[in-house]
Every structure is written in structure tokens, then in C-alpha cells.
Task: inverse folding
């Protein structure tokens, strides 16, 4: 089998992402027949079917999943090589994945400064839990990720850029939680599993010997604050987000002690990424001091 053509891999990746030829053709500004032909030629070249074809579209076969992983890496490396050998000016698309708290409370200022300095870069910001953000970076769907520490993955480099303090928020009608055991059996309002701050909360409750009630999973801080103010349960949120909200007397705020009062947010990128656009973002964001520093 001869080497795989990058343009064919780009078409294959688009079909895999879109789940069908027509949607991929629209995304690539090609006619569907051309996309179908290139996919068929790629399948003939590798000698294996890459898609299962059914009424609702296309899904990857096991071999297709393997090839998609290689395609993502090859296309990413091709783009990085072209940029590294360019004129060192940041350009193109910078894909950032970040936790909602970081995107809302920490990144607007730095990103405004970044775009003012580098107008040829188009910034795309996606929001997700810490797990989803890291998955996007490791899967090649993001160039940079912002996630709460710790992060320990092979092939990922990090630098601390922000510091967060976690605050316990409880309904105004709750008794003041001078003794955290008063939270036992009460509902936790949090993001879905994979949220870094939810993990910190769970560890804190476990260390304190507290068994909460059910977990109500929500998808935004606005929903968290609304549920807490309505008396649904309690939550833990970064102070930086809480400072952006005017909740009136809707809930009580109680700073958490110890390590929870000083958690670093890390900027993460793939090891060896020498692209000018990522380096320029690192220059905009100075390193945060170590906790307690």
C-alpha cells in the first residue's frame, strides 16, 4: 500500500465527523459525488471498509476508527509543520477548549489582548468539563486547553496561568454550615461527571466523612446558582465566577479552607507543538505563582 494522501484523509475525517457524505461535502465545499469517490478510493487503497452504511448515514468500522486516529495526527502534524516553516507570524485558527469558569471569568481579557496583537488568528473557543477539555486536546480537536490541576498525561505540557479559590454556596434558608456535617444527605448541584471542581468537592466531603444526598447534574453556572437559590441543594464554585453574579440574598457564601482555597488553572498543549499561535498565547498569559506563593 502506497502512502496515504493527506487530502483524502481530510475528506475521510470530514465524513467521519459529519456522519454522512452530503454534510461533509457541504463543509468541504465539494460536490457529494466527489466525496463519495474519494472515500471509495481510500477504502480500495487500504483494502478494508471504513464505514458502515445505513439509512441514517455512515458510522465508522473498527478499521475506520483506527484510521481516523492516524488521520487526526497526520493532518495535525502537517498543519504544524507548515506553520513552523512559515514566517513565524501567528495565523490561522487557534482552537481553545476551556472549562466554563475559565472561559467566562478569566479568558475574555487575555483573548481580547491576543486578538488585538494577532488579528490574523481566528480564535475558536469551546466549553466543556475538565475531562472533555482534555479529551479535545489529546484527540487533536483543540490546540490549547485550560483545566484545573492536576494534569498528568504523556505528551501534554502544562503551565499554571490562573489561581482559583473555591466557595461553598448554600441556600439562604440553610443553617450556616459551621459544621460541614450539616450537609449530609443534602443534594449536591454540580456539573456532570468529569468536572474538576465536582471532583474537588467530592474529595472534600469524603475527607470530612460527609455522605451527601443525590447529585443534580446541570450544564451551566447560571443553572447552579438558580438551583441553589431555589433551595435545591448546595454547590461549590470558583470565587471568580461567583464575583460575576449578583445573587442578592439568594444564597450564602462560605470560602473553603486549605488546598481548596488555592487551585491553579493550567494552560495545556501537546508536547512539541511549536506553532507560533500557541507560543503567542503563552506570551499573553504569564505563569501563575505556586499555591501559597
Result:
Amino acid at each position: 500500500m502506497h502512502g496515504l494522501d493527506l487530502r483524502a484523509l481530510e475528506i475521510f475525517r470530514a465524513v467521519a465527523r459529519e456522519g454522512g457524505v452530503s454534510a461533509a461535502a457541504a463543509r468541504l465545499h465539494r460536490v457529494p459525488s466527489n466525496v463519495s469517490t474519494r472515500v471509495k478510493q481510500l477504502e480500495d487503497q487500504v483494502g478494508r471498509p471504513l464505514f458502515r452504511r445505513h439509512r441514517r448515514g455512515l458510522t465508522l468500522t473498527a478499521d475506520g476508527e483506527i484510521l481516523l486516529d492516524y488521520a487526526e495526527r497526520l493532518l495535525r502534524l502537517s498543519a504544524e509543520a507548515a506553520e513552523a516553516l512559515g514566517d513565524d507570524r501567528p495565523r490561522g485558527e487557534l482552537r481553545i477548549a476551556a472549562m466554563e469558569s475559565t472561559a467566562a471569568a478569566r479568558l475574555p481579557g487575555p483573548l481580547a489582548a491576543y486578538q488585538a496583537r494577532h488579528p490574523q488568528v481566528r480564535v475558536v473557543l469551546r466549553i466543556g468539563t475538565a475531562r472533555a477539555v482534555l479529551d479535545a486536546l489529546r484527540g487533536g480537536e483543540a490546540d490549547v486547553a485550560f483545566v484545573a490541576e492536576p494534569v498528568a498525561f504523556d505528551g501534554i505540557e502544562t503551565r499554571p496561568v490562573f489561581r482559583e479559590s473555591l466557595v461553598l454556596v448554600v441556600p439562604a434558608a440553610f443553617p450556616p454550615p459551621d459544621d460541614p456535617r450539616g450537609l449530609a444527605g443534602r443534594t449536591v448541584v454540580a456539573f456532570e461527571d468529569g468536572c474538576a471542581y465536582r471532583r474537588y468537592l467530592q474529595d472534600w466531603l469524603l475527607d470530612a466523612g460527609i455522605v451527601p444526598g443525590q447529585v443534580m447534574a446541570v450544564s451551566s453556572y447560571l443553572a447552579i446558582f438558580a438551583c441553589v437559590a431555589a433551595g435545591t441543594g448546595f454547590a461549590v464554585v470558583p470565587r471568580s465566577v461567583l464575583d460575576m453574579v449578583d445573587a442578592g440574598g439568594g444564597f450564602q457564601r462560605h470560602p473553603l479552607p486549605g488546598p481548596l482555597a488555592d487551585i491553579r488553572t493550567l494552560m495545556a498543549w501537546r508536547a512539541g507543538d511549536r506553532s507560533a499561535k500557541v507560543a503567542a498565547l503563552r506570551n499573553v498569559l504569564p505563569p501563575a505563582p505556586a499555591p501559597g506563593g
In short: The chain has a mean pLDDT of 88. The longest helix spans residues 62-84. The longest strand covers residues 156-164.
